[in-house]
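quick one
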Amino acid sequence: MKIAKVTDLKDNEMKEVSVNGKSILLINSSGKFYAVDSRCSHRHLPLVKGKVDGNIITCPYHGSQFNIVDGTVVHGPAAKPLKTYYVNIQGDDIEIGE
Ligand code: FES
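structure w/ FE2/S2 (inorganic) cluster:
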């Protein structure tokens, strides 16, 4: 499913997109695209206000860190991983799937 264009996000920029009623965070990390749940698994607050550095996203609220490649928790207080989504680039289009 096409959800955005690669030109929609600058390097290290993030954007929330709605796909089938789910809110997903699309991330451009130095030219590579990733998609994860848009809400932190700690208190379900929006990760879009956080920061991405390489493969790590940091939640701005209590500092949890997750690996955006596989969703694992790198640093608490979050205990549960983030769901990740498959990202495929087709020309200028970004597609995602489960
Ligand atoms: S809501 Fe993200 S660390 Fe608490």
